[in-house]
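Here is the promised in-class demo. Please do not try to memorize the tokens; focus on the logic of going from shape to residues.
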């Protein structure tokens, strides 16, 4: 809606005639008629009185909050791409700038056009690309004030990369504060800044902590997939996923215990007495050193892990035995000679 259309809409909602509105503002009725028909605009000094009279904000009066549909935004972005191909970067940029002035309240349009123009700067290689920095920067900064978290995060990510490419690492790092502490990408990007700014030890630690946490997530997801396969009666896929869990443990240097443990559940499901007893024995043999593999791994050489004392390790083996005795899923084993021999070791 244009300003004149906004005036007409809210004047009628207030049940005012053009003459009544003109009288309250100290102007003529034909002046109001011209505003509403788009033939002229109110004097700037009248904008605040008109907004108060109609009960709207100045932004709404001037159509600053006009919403665009997703389809309209996509159409504008597609047109930007077409203008980029046909007319080149500079023409497309100034067209986009005019559109953003026309729709300054469309947060998604502002963000996505700024991101597109940033990407095209790399692919189109325009002359003197720095001349566009101030506008693109201001649009992304504006997006940081959005009420939508997704828009704020995306803008912060773009600003980080914008300044990182310019080797302004300290400024780039500041935008990572807009990303959640739970976002693994935040830690990875922190590592890249540490690396570039000579904070090598911090970089190692950031990367290694991330790698260690990834193992936990990947392992949990593989186990969820395994449980899903079992629930659908797909034993073959369940066995495949068990193998993947073992391979993941080896890949991340998590040791024999972590690699062997997933297979136990599969053997229990299949009621394979021999294999269950073999796995249980292997678990007991490796439980005391279950943390040694990743503690001594080059993958995590800059992380500090708590060292478990020998006495605690011996207790851990006995604790595992106790857990096995109390585990109802192992009841089918508990009267076998192999079980009794295992528990007596």
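The designed amino acids, position by position:
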């Amino acid at each position: 809606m244009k300003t004149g259309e906004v005036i007409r809409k809210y004047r009628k909602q207030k049940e005012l005639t053009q003459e009544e509105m003109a009288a309250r503002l100290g102007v003529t009725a034909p002046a109001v008629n011209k505003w509403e028909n788009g033939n002229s605009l109110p004097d700037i000094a009248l904008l605040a009185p008109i907004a108060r009279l109609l009960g709207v904000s100045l932004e709404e009066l001037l159509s600053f909050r006009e919403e665009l549909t997703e389809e309209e935004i996509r159409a504008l972005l597609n047109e930007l791409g077409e203008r980029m191909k046909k007319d080149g970067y500079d023409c497309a940029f100034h067209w986009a700038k005019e559109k953003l002035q026309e729709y300054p309240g469309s947060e998604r349009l502002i963000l996505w056009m700024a991101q597109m123009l940033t990407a095209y700067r790399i692919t189109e290689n325009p002359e003197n690309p720095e001349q566009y920095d101030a506008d693109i920067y201001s649009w992304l900064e504006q997006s940081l004030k959005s009420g939508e978290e997704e828009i704020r995060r995306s803008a912060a990510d773009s600003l980080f990369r914008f300044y990182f490419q310019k080797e302004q690492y300290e400024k780039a790092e500041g935008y990572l504060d807009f990303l959640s502490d739970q976002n693994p990408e935040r830690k990875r990007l922190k590592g890249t800044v540490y690396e570039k700014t000579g904070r090598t030890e911090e970089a190692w630690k950031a990367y290694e902590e991330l790698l260690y946490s990834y193992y936990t997530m990947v392992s949990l997801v593989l186990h969820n997939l395994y449980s899903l396969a079992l629930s659908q009666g797909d034993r073959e896929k369940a066995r495949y996923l068990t193998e993947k869990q073992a391979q993941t443990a080896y890949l991340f240097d998590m040791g024999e215990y972590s690699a062997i443990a997933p297979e136990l559940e599969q053997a229990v499901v299949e009621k394979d007495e021999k294999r269950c007893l073999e796995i249980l024995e292997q678990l007991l043999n490796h439980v005391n050193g279950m943390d040694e593999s990743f503690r001594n791994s080059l993958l995590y050489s800059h992380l500090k892990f708590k060292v478990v004392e020998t006495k605690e390790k011996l207790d851990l083996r006995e604790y595992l035995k106790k857990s096995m005795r109390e585990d109802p899923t192992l009841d089918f084993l508990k009267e076998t000679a192999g079980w009794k021999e295992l528990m007596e070791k």
